[in-house]
Amino acid sequence: HNNKQNTKDDLSVDEFMLSGFDSHEEDACEDEESTQQKGKMKKPAPQKTSDKKQGKASEHKDQLSALKSNDPDFYEFLQQNDQKLLNFDDSDSLEDEDEDEEERMYHRLPSQLEVGSDDEEEEEEESEKKDAKKSKEATKVTEAMIENWRAGLTKEPTAKLIRDITQAFKAAVATTKGDSEELCRYTISDSAVFNSLVLFCIKDMHAALSKMLKLKAPEQGQKKLILPSSSPRWQKNQIDIKMYVAGVVQLLSSLTQATVIAAVLRHANQMVPYYLCLPKQCRHLLKSLIKHWSTGEETVRVLAFLALNKICRHKQEIYLNSVLKQMYIAYVKNCKFTSPNTLPMINFMQRTLAEMYSLDTQVSYQHAFIYIRQLAIHLRNAINLKKKETYQSVYNWQYVHCLYLWCRVLSTIYPSEVLEPLLYPLCQVIIGCIKLVPISRYYPLRLHCVRAITLLSANTKTYVPALPFLLEILQREDFNKKPGRMSIKPINFAVILKLSKTNLQEKAYKDGLVEQLYDLILEYFHTQACSIGFPELALPTIVQLKAFLKECKVANYCKQMRQLLEKIQENCSYITGRRQKAAFGVADVTAVAAWEKQVAVEGTPLTKYYSQWKKLREKEIQLEISGKERMEDLNLPEIKRKKAEEKKVNKKEFKGLFESDSDDDDDDLFKSKGKGGSDEDEGLEDLSDLSDEEDVDDSEEDDSDGDQKKPSSSKGKTPKKMLSTELKVVAEGDEDMVEDLELSDQD
After folding, report:
1. Which of 189, 190, 200, 300 is the most buried (most CB within 10 A)?
2. 711-742 b/e with 16+ CB inside 10 Å = b?
3. From start to end residue, where is composition biased (Acidic residues) (predicted)?
């Protein structure tokens, strides 16, 4: 019955009509027979179906012959109108059945899912063959091709020519990434060809694209950019341009040589209008630019900043918020370690980031509020918990540089009603930072904080009392105490936050501290030099400096502080004399402001001295740096020590001459490099304290003071009298060997 049903399905309308003349009884009989056959013989069933399939045509022939006898009129009608139906072969029926089987295969769902067969593998092999063909088809770029492209671009840049160049550029970028799998129409195997292709694109592509899109050249002084999307040809060429600008970003991320990166960045700066029309590629470019701005070399950083600024100026509402956030995070990451080499780069990032914040004060307020609050939370935790970890979260370079950044931002954007409310909380955070651990070891950090306050006070015309934190150092530190250790190198206060115990005992520490105090007091007074209240402001400082000069016995320190005192007093008398002639009262704010402005234009003794001093001080610092470099080049002589055995012999010979002189004293005079317990090694250990985390207590200061009180070497008793001949022998001794000094990394 099933087989018969299938045949019915397979028949056309006419055939179905013909087969429909069979009686129902025959169908029933056939059903019974088929069920009996199925029951008896299960195995040969598939064979029988195939036999039946083959016998379908003969069955139809029998049916048609029966039709001839039963209904001759209809048969004649078929002969006249449908000869194909009557004259069919077995082969036709088999073909039809094959087609039906194919239809079943493709259009009916299988009862069970098939396991992956060899067909899939064959398909993979075919795709691999296709890839191989494509790679064989890829043409090799030559110098001649590049020259032809250059000539074509200068003549008339067409869409096809641009497509060829972008495909070749894509292949060049793929070689830098190492993506050999990426399919390209071109291949580049020679480095010279790569260089000339990239150079050609950097030089000529921008002008060619503008020419092809028929973009007007911007007029002089025109700030608004002409976007390429305004061209009617943009849609047609968008895919090729997109591929090209994406390639430029990929090239930026894979290059390592600073000069090449700088050249590509200049080109990217030209292409900014194209990036503004393609948001995805623009986001990728911004990410790459921020990386180069925060980690690249000097020229690379500047070019990256210019491109960032250009994009954010023209699409503020889209990019500025996210760019500022990413730039701030990059700044914090890259100011963790501070050295004389990294300090200029950190200052550059501060200044440029302040420029970016000045683009939109509303956005800047939101960022500044969040990040200053974050700094305040760290400080609050440190004050409340009083643990080593919480102190370290505040007393580190990142925190200090962030304070300095926000001082610079508020100074740059002043006057701004939007950002003005942030001045007070920022000052409170800086003052809290100074007061957190007010011990001598953290004087360098205190000086950094005072510098930040001075910057803020000078540029925002806000009085912030910074002098007490400097004068406190003059009161607390005993400058008369002789230093425990002598040091060759001066301490560079610009690149340290914390002093070691060894540093506190050195002469260089006190020399540097007095110099720093002189600089900072002078800088702060310079910011207030034209103020009408300068004499009253300077009075506490004058009193403190006079007290210091009375107590201090070191001539160098007294000389510097006396000079500072004289300049302050001179400025006081000048301001006092000027304001005695004034005809307005203290309450008249506008008149006071006008008076101060007039004094600033004319200049005061302190401002004139400061400008001269600043130039000399900068030269001094440069000489110090170059002097250090020269010192490293010198091959200083070294006294060659005698071996231990020879020393023992000498000691036996002259035993009793110097009873009180111990071995330790000898070691103190010429410290041996090899001894683990020597003072030099202790000094090195202490120097490493600058980076290590330590408990910060006032007790440390006491310890350091205690160490200072200890004499550097024990005094020997008076030696016994000797004959002059014996003294001569002792005095002559062996000749000293002089050889070149080899300094280790530690030294």
Report:
1. 300
2. eeeeeeeeeeeeeeeeeeeeeeeeeeeeeeee
3. 24-34, 89-103, 116-126, 679-705, 732-747
Q: Does pLDDT of 313 surpass 70?
A: yes
Q: Which residues lie below 8 Å from residue 597, measured CB to CB, with a gap of 6+? A: none
**Each residue of 244-292: pLDDT tens digit?**
999 999 999 998 899 999 999 999 999 999 999 999 999 999 999 999 9
Which is more confidently placed, 247 or 642? 247
Question: What does the pLDDT look like over 90-118, one tens digit per residue?
Answer: 444 444 444 454 444 444 444 454 444 44
In degrees rounded to 5, what are phi and psi of residue 187?
A: -130, 150
Burial state string for 10-24 with b = 16 or more CB within 10 A and e = fewer than 16: bbeeebeebeeeeee
Cβ contact 199:169 at 8 Å:
no
Residue 485 DSSP code? B
Q: Give the count of beta carbons closer than 10 Å to the beta carbon of residue 285.
A: 23
Q: Residue 686's closest CA among 698, 694, 674? A: 694
Phi, psi (deg, nearest 5) at residue 584: -115, 165
Q: What is the mean pLDDT of the chain?
A: 77
Report d(CA 702, CA 134) in Å as an integer: 79
532: Cβ contacts below 8 Å, ≥ 6 apart: 575, 579, 592, 595, 596
